[in-house]
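seq:
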Amino acid sequence: MIGGGSSNLHLQKSETEDGSISKILKGGDKLLGPLGIGLTAKENYEKAHGDNQKFIVGTVVDTAYSSAATTIGTVIGTALCPPIGAVIGAGAGFLVSKGVNKKWGHPPKSVVDRTKEIANKGVDHLQNIGNGLVSLFR
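struct:
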């Protein structure tokens, strides 16, 4: 058909759902996701110096920021221009992730560092509440 009919729709569908770029992205994500989380956990373990709370909170916050930025970028890119938009969006998400890790202010800390501090204070507060409740029943 001339001017776009079902044949054009079929071509677009095969490019986005069965295209090799989509398969590479899906396969790469499954491989790199656990590897990235493992490297993040290793780095946080070394920085925590035996403090399990800081290790866990740090790993969760780092993983959440980087995963959210890359995922949102990929989704927006895919919606705008599939399948190459997914690659561009993932790259943009990666850059956003790097941006939130850039240190600024006095003392120099990143958005991620500041989030970790807030989360650790929240965990400390909940532990104090829990300890107070436990002491009521002793």
